[in-house]
Amino acid sequence: MKVDVQSLGTFNDLAHEGAQQATGSLAQMTGMEAEVEVTKISLVDRADVGEELGNDRYVGVSFDFEGALAGETVLAFDEPSKETITEALVPGDEADEAMARSSVEEIGNIMMSGFIDGWADYLGATIDHSPPTYIERTGPDVLPAPPAGTERDHIFVFRSQVEWVDETICFYIYMLPEYDSLTGLLGEHADAESDAIPIEKLETFNRMTRSGTQTAADNLGMMAGVDVEAEVTRISFAPIEDVPKQVGTETYVGTVVEFTGLPSGFLLVLFDEPSAINVAEALMPVDPDGEGLTDQHTAAIEELGNIMTSGFVDGWANVLQQSVEHTPPRLVHDMGRAIIDPLAAQLGQHQRHAFIIDSRMQTESLAFESEILALPNEAELRQALQELQVDRADQTEADVEQIF
Amino acid sequence: MKVYDGSQAEGATEPEPEQRKVGIAEYEVATDGAVLTTSGLGSCVGVALHDPHSGVGGLVHVMMPSADEVDGGDPAKFADTGTELIVEEVTAAGADPDQLVAKLAGGSDMLDFSESGGGIGERNAAVVRETLAALDVPITAEDIGGDHGRSLRLESRTGDLVVKSAKQGVERL
User: Fold this and answer.
1) Who's near A362: CB < 8 A, 6+ residues apart?
2) CA-to-CA distance for A255 and A339, rounded, in angstroms?
């Protein structure tokens, strides 16, 4: 099965419009303005689905749908959103748990009908959906079990994050289509078969990226003297203007390189500020001279970024059988989105959508999180994947340890 | 795009002005004194317009220099079409084109990697300036360039543009 960039872009737009329509219904019923922040399609290991939901408590509704597209979809509100919605629909203090629940059900039903109808309209076909099921769970458990009926360890996830205007709370719309149903549709909507990437190669590439991330994590672990695990790796596809939203608005510290070869692009190793301080101090032989993030900290992060970048890029080069060169790392310390937007703009000169390769790592013994973000040139990544020999893919699949 | 006309304002006491977020490649127009915010500008440029007489304000967050250079996309994404669009929209919302003034911020040159056609921040700002000049909208203040990110807050009641950056603190234009 192949997937082409054109249809990925179209489907991403469709999911975004659906989420906007759903958000519009919400505004109409409650008078509360919300904005669809990000919509992206990700190819993700089924074990990692919904990882961004953390351990928060969510309520929501889920639907099964079948027809032109089949699968499950979920609308999940965090706890504060539930209260806000209930308050908007049932003003006053007397709203009890049952009312809160029926408010969520009512809103969820209207929003998600809009979402699914949008898809059906576009596809010019019928998609039937079940009545909503009310759910109340913690973290990723709020999502349906990834679609069964396939041996695959990767699934496609459409995810929209919607924020209330006051920024404090948000909700998510997830759609987990059945693999064959979606890939069939993607195939039908593909423009030119010659441009299409076999999905298997994307999956292989994702697995390789995970190994590359683990190498970077091991390098970090060795320097800091702790075990660091690669937590999540996924390939997402989003409009270029949504790329900077991959990270939050808070301040990050890290390194950025431009890599050249096939593909070219950018690689970022980013730590949020508290993580940067913790990690840097684990590497320093003596206590730092001052409070907060000092020059000693940033020097340590720069060195670390360099080593992690090399680990990651070398792994990639091995899989792609291409030499991947990179510039010396540049230290960055700024608002996350401001770091990424010049890179997205540079890519945006040649493409409307971008592949975002996103890996996270963390460890139990040291309070930190780190993110590796790769932004390859889209056409070049496509070409590189096309040139990725199937036998090579098989070989790397069987031989991950040796390659990295 | 949304136009807020204040018809939903409640109560006689002076309410806190409403706050509206402007995303990347998006814009907002306010006719009710709302505060328009946008965050995390690197090489992107925020173009804030204000008509002091009608009190209409608008903010667009543009990402790339010219719509001609790329195939397709939202007009608000580009410095040329985005600037034209926000002038058009504030005018449509009641601003007098002869009274309009502009303030700019952003266009940083952080992370310019020469091989990929860098200088985008600078080019974004240059195209915004050219477009505003062609439309006869004077620029009364700007905070452009440098190697740091910025977040913006346009107080549409007064036309003040508050620029915040991690390194330079807060500046009111």
Assistant:
1) A228, A229, A231, A368, A369, A370
2) 10
Which ipTM score applies to this complex?
0.84
Looking at chain B, the whole-number percentage of residues with pLDDT higher than 90 is: 64
b/e for A24-57, b at 16 or more Cβ within 10 A? ebbeebbebbbbbbbbbbbbbbeebbbeebeeee
CATH number at residue A8: 3.40.1550.10
Closest CA to B110 of A371, A269, A250, A333: A333
- Tell which A residues from 143 to 202 touch B, by Cβ distance under 8 Å: 163, 165-167
Which domain-ending residue is among A168, A188, A208? Answer: A188
B5 and chain A in contact, CB less than 8 A? no
Do A204 and A182 belong together in one domain?
Answer: no
Nearest CA in chain B to A243: B24
Query: Rounded to an integer, what distance in angstroms lies between the CA atom of residue B170 and that of residue B164?
Result: 4
Q: For residue A135, what are the β-bridge partners?
A: A60
- Between positions 117 and 136 of B, the ones with CB within 8 A of A are 117-118, 120-121, 124
Residue B11 lies in a domain: no
In a 3-state reduction of DSSP, which class is residue B170? Answer: strand
| Phi, psi of A329, rounded to the nearest 5 degrees | -65, 145
Cα–Cα distance for residue pair B101/B51, rounded to 1 Å: 6
Count of CB atoms situated within 10 Å of the CB of A86: 21
Question: What's the domain count of chain A?
Answer: 2
Which chain A residues are Cβ-neighbours of B40 within 8 angstroms? 244, 249, 335-338, 341
Identity at A333, one-letter amino acid code:
H
Q: What is d(CA B165, CA A19) in angstroms, rounded to the nearest whole number?
A: 32
- Is the preceding peptide bond at A244 cis, omega within 30 degrees of 0? no
Residue A83: exposure state from Cβ atoms within 10 A (0-12, 13-18, ≥19): middle
Q: What is the pLDDT of residues A31-49, one digit of tens each?
A: 777 777 777 788 777 777 7
Q: Are residues A307 and A350 in the same domain?
A: yes
Query: Are both A158 and A236 inside the same structural domain?
Result: no
CATH number at residue B99: 3.30.1330.200
A164, A188, A212 — which closes off a domain? A188
- In terms of domains, do A10 and A158 share one? yes
Q: Which of B20, B121, B151 faces A335 most closely, judged by CB atoms? A: B151
Domain co-membership, A135 together with A284: no
Q: What is the pTM of this model?
A: 0.80
Structural domain of residue A234, as residue ranges? 197-403
Q: How do residues B99-115 score in pLDDT, each as one tens digit?
A: 999 999 999 988 777 65
In the predicted model, what is the mean pLDDT of residues B154-173? Answer: 90
Domain residues for the domain of B55 are 17-172
Pairing of strands B101-106, B45-50: antiparallel
Give the whole-angstrom CA distance, residue A363 versus residue A365.
6
Closest CA to A375 of A252, A247, A242, A268: A268
Domain count, chain B: 1
Are A133 and A237 part of one and the same domain?
Answer: no
